[in-house]
Specification:
By secondary structure, this protein is α/β, with parallel strands linked by helices. The chain contains 8 helices and 6 strands, in the order βααααααβββαββα. Strands 1, 2, 3, 4, 5 and 6 form a 6-stranded mixed β-sheet that branches. Strand 4 (221-227), helix 7 and strand 5 (261-266) form a beta-alpha-beta unit. Helix 3 (51-66) crosses helix 4 and helix 4 crosses helix 6 (158-181). It is globular and about 55 Å long.
């Protein structure tokens, strides 16, 4: 199979190639349930994030910013100090998150609905490392007050402030789990939140964001992915490694080097899962992705995305539209009229480059 490096569509002078595209999140969606893929990629139904998902986004942002600091300053205290300003930034970008704590997590009231899934969020922007008093989404508050648990936010009900305080404290515990398995003072990542992409079979664009890429002096690559959920049972570990194999394939095809280690860091349980792929395995994985893309294109052509019931249905945000739960999918979207001179085909799953680590 042939491949070439493809830069981000946002880079000047570079056009995105025509043809299908695939990210780890969207590939996993189709494998899990073709109808879920349709809801997220084609219908673009709004998502209802859970606090666990939002917490994962927050912890990833903190860990990225941590490596902006000089090595000797990458301490647990420094990481804890980043939690509040990063939460402030997230809510500024998605104001709906400010209502995440208005009700108890098990209450029947709906959680805030975002205009896009959390895993469609672009890489975090640079923000000050220290909390800034009086700067909150939409009002004036000091997030450090909530993080320290000294008093509720001005104008915020005490129970809501307590939920936010517990949420930020839980993020801090996940950061403690990170420091239990790694010493960031001994690391100098080559890349963080790095967009990687390539073409396979000269037409399928595969792309995604890597949490962290380490490169040894000898040129060995280690792909690192942070997981804020618990370590899965062995039967489900392959699902987690699917994402890293995706990145390993891109790195191999673009840099000519098979990553020596694919590393999953489970922060909740303070566990490490290492896996070492080889070229033959990545070739098989490449063929799997091509076959998966072809199945997706057939489903699009036939407008046939069938539900695939499983235990994961309990976490789905779109049960009201699913036939398995007595719902009816919305009308299939008609593609917009395109100019005759169009040279690009922006597949809906890639019109916004998704950071695939946003799920816990």
């Amino acid at each position: 199979m042939t491949a070439e490096t493809v830069l981000s569509p946002s880079e000047p002078g570079r056009e995105r190639p025509a043809g299908p595209s695939l990210s780890p999140s969207r590939a996993a969606d189709f494998k899990t349930c073709p109808l879920l893929f349709r809801f997220r990629t084609i219908d673009r139904l709004p998502e209802q994030p859970t606090r666990d998902q939002v917490r994962g986004t927050l912890v990833h942002a903190v860990l990225e910013r941590l490596f902006d600091l000089p090595a000797e300053q990458r301490t647990p205290a420094a990481a804890a100090a980043l939690v509040a300003p990063q939460w402030e930034r997230l809510v500024a970008e998605e104001p709906a998150l400010s209502g995440l704590f208005s009700v108890a997590e098990d209450a029947p009231a709906p959680v805030p609905v975002l205009d896009r899934p959390l895993d469609d969020r672009p890489a975090p922007a640079q923000v000050p490392a220290q909390p800034t008093a009086g700067a909150v989404p939409g009002a004036g508050w000091d997030p450090a007050v909530v993080a320290n648990g000294t008093e509720p936010l001005p104008g915020m009900p005490s129970d809501e402030a307590a939920r936010l305080e517990a949420f930020l404290a839980d993020a801090g515990e996940l950061l403690d789990g990170y420091f239990a398995v790694e010493d960031p003072q001994r690391l100098e990542p080559a890349e963080r939140e790095s967009l990687v992409s390539t073409l396979v079979d000269d037409e399928l664009l595969i792309r995604g964001y890597i949490d962290r890429l380490d490169v040894s002096p000898a040129g060995d690559l280690r792909v690192v992915d942070y997981k804020t959920g618990g370590a899965p049972r062995e039967a489900f570990e392959g699902r987690a490694l699917f994402q890293l194999k995706f990145y390993a394939l891109v790195l191999w095809r673009t840099r000519g080097v098979v990553p020596r280690v694919l590393r999953l860091l489970y922060l909740k349980d303070a566990e490490i899962c290492d896996y070492s792929p080889d070229a033959e395995e990545l070739e098989r994985f490449e063929r799997t992705l091509v076959a998966l893309s072809q199945a997706i294109e057939r489903a699009k052509q036939d407008r046939d995305f069938r539900p695939k019931p499983s235990r994961l249905c309990g976490w789905c945000s779109h049960q009201q539209f699913c036939p398995e739960f007595g719902g009816t999918p919305p009308p299939y979207p008609e593609p917009p009229a395109r100019p005759a001179t169009a040279t690009q085909d922006q597949s809906p799953d890639e019109s916004q480059a998704p950071p695939d680590h946003r799920e816990p």
